[in-house]
Write a structure and sequence with these properties.
By secondary structure, the chain is α+β, with helices and mostly antiparallel strands. It has three helices and five strands, in the order H-H-H-E-E-E-E-E. The protein starts with 7 loop residues before the first helix and ends in an 8-residue tail after the last strand.
Amino acid sequence: MRIPKFSDQEAENFFKHDYIDRGMIKWQGFYLSDHTSALNAEHEIKNKILQREVLPQMTVNEITDVVNKAIVKNKTVKIQTNTCDNNGVFETPVVGKVSGYMGDSLYVNKDNFFKISSIRNVIIMNGKFINY
């Protein structure tokens, strides 16, 4: 097979007038699988945040009644606080067993504690754990 030789002028004319570079179009099919899986995971997280249920505000008496029932029956609770981020999205609810309370502080799983006044809602779970 014979490779044709072009002069510098012919090559320069070819690239200036005849050759059309497709640019990024030709690279669109070459996304790395790691990149697409990271994008999909980020999309799932955003959907979970957007679909997060905002539970109704409970009174302090309602909260303490639910907490007392959970302590007596040794049940797991889901606690949603009134804390929001800059976009107005509530924090992820905490699921766990109430390990006790002192004054206005409620202890869950021995390492999380909340001021009862900062709690929005408390629900006793029926053996079902919800991933948030």
